[in-house]
Amino acid sequence: MKAIVLAAGKGTRLQTEGIPLPKVMRSACGRPLLSYVLQELDFLSPGEIAVVVGYRKENVIPAFPGYRFAEQKEQLGTGHAVLSASGLFAGYQGPVLVCCGDMPLMKKSTYQALIRTHLEEGNLCTVLTGRAEHPLPYGRVIRDGEGRFLAIREEKDCNAEEREIRELNSGVYVFDAETLFSALPRLKNSNAQGEYYLTDVPSLILSEGGRVGICEACGEEEMLGVNTPDQLREVEEQIRRRKA
Known about the structure:
This is Bifunctional UDP-N-acetylglucosamine pyrophosphorylase / Glucosamine-1-phosphate N-acetyltransferase. The structure is a single chain. The chain is of the alpha/beta class. It is about 25% helix and about 25% strand. The chain has one domain (about 1-244): Spore Coat Polysaccharide Biosynthesis Protein SpsA, Chain A, CATH 3.90.550. Strand 8 (about 140-145) and strand 9 form a beta hairpin.
């Protein structure tokens, strides 16, 4: 088992506070956001984890010795970010977990439930999902009439009916590594953001006859990412509650 942690973002909306750090190095309760994510991945050794860096990488790399790093030189979307790490996985044929470095509330047990589902079902891709009662600007998970995975639709690309779907994509996946890195160069950026979405990979796998599964094991608070000062404060409050 190996993992890729996406940690290249600038965090433009957090820069309004005048702190020129990359997003994953912003502090929550005295620790960088990324440190919480890596702590929950401690069932893997640092050498099995690739961290994709970009903006001010010099602030990230020295803070986490022992991990492997790949650079995303341009911000062209999550699919492009994962592709930036492909050179670190040459010859690897096993499963790879892909997660986000700005989601410090995701629990180890949730990552492990996703991995277990992926292995038990023999999937080429397994998507971690959760249901939210409060509006979150995340991709909606589209299922067929029998409850099987069909697609992930990013919120900006959703129609009115799709926006009412409460099952959300957490942004965390397990892929078969060879299948993932074969699919990434074939992504297209014909969407509202003009980006290469990692969320398009499961649908591409499905269209080619591959098995895609869903693990609905993510709590609503675990899906919280940090893009704004308000979200950083909300995450800090959740961390304090857990400690209490």
